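Priority: medium. Attachment 1 of 2:
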């Protein structure tokens, strides 16, 4: 029953040969300032915290131009996508999602008795807002938009999303997942939650800040809607560890790390895009930390090559065109990737 060996808690060290290009993680790890704050906070690990959460929410509110009451924090944004799903499904109904996209909440919605419309991307591989609008029914409760979209990296402009929100009845929740918005120069829609009371935005610390393992996400919405969501989160926000909160507060101030990540992400993206283009591989312009491309013109077994080289590299999406996604690593990792697979 008990493990024979002491578990190795340093997962990356244990598996140092594997290159992880499938989870859109931060290849530079976590901000050093955040790590320092996390170490310091370990001595508080035995205590329930009521102070950090307040400081964190204040900081998040300020950076998003909203009030604390417009925010709900949690251990990762996936949990909040699920929370919104549970909320909208109270009286069952219908939901609309683009395909492919980051629809982890889809099985929960169906399990809770909701029906769905799955809307394919348009021929430019953009989320098809027109078709999503046409799919609205009397009992539609939720429309999900991932912006930039995962797995394509495509970005809808603020204007496009705002026009869409305006065209939808205001009793339908529009959930905009902005997990990758920091990789763009486009402003979050967070400042619009009091204008459109059915707009909910999710954000995460997993990507830019490198907190995928530490777990922190938040949702921004109209005050009334947030108060309703809190009814489904019994001890609001208490699932986030003191250690993560201390790290997040420090991470937000570590401008040096943020700049390093963004500059390198763009550099690596340019390198990867030009590598694919030179080899005649079709890509979609990416506004995130990954690239979507087609294996249609690829000779050989791409996934076997990845496996043999111990590179974790995803799966295929869509029925036609063998589209797949690769996360952007460091320059060295992407050099190795190109050496191995192309
Ligand atoms: N939203 C999108 C679009 C994602 O790609 C991911 C993770 O890859 C998440 C949400 C989940 O992030 P978190 O780590 O905050 O749960």
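Attachment 2 of 2:
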């Amino acid at each position: 029953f008990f493990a024979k060996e002491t578990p190795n808690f340093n997962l990356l060290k244990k598996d140092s040969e594997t290159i992880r290009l499938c989870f859109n993680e931060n290849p530079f790890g976590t901000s050093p300032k955040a790590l320092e704050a996390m170490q310091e906070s370990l001595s508080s690990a035995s205590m329930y915290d009521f102070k950090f959460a307040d400081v964190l929410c204040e900081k998040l509110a300020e950076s998003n131009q909203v009030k604390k009451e417009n925010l709900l924090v949690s251990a990762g944004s996936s949990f909040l996508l699920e929370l919104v799903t549970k909320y909208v499904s109270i009286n069952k109904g219908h939901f609309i999602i683009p395909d492919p996209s980051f629809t982890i909440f889809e099985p929960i919605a169906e399990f809770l008795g909701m029906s769905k419309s799955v809307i394919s991307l348009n021929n430019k591989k953009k989320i098809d807002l027109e078709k999503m609008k046409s799919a609205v029914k009397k009992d539609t409760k939720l429309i999900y938009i991932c912006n930039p979209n995962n797995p394509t990296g495509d970005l809808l402009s603020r204007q496009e999303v705002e026009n869409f929100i305006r065209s939808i009845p205001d009793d339908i929740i529009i959930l905009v997942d902005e997990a990758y918005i920091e990789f763009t120069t486009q402003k979050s829609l967070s400042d619009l939650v009091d204008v459109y009371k059915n707009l909910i935005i999710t954000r995460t610390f997993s990507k830019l800040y490198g907190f995928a393992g530490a777990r922190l996400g938040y949702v921004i919405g109209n005050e009334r809607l947030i108060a309703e969501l809190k009814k489904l989160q019994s001890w609001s926000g208490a699932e986030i560890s003191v250690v993560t909160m201390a790290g997040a507060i420090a991470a937000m101030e570590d401008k040096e790390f943020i700049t390093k990540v963004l500059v390198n992400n763009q550099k690596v993206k340019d390198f990867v895009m030009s590598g694919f283009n030179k080899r005649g591989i079709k890509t979609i312009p990416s506004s995130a930390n990954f690239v979507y491309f087609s294996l249609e013109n690829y000779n050989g077994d791409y996934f076997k090559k990845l496996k043999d080289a111990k590179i974790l590299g995803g799966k295929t999406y869509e029925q036609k065109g063998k589209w797949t996604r690769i996360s952007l690593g460091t320059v060295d990792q992407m050099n190795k990737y190109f050496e191995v697979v192309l």
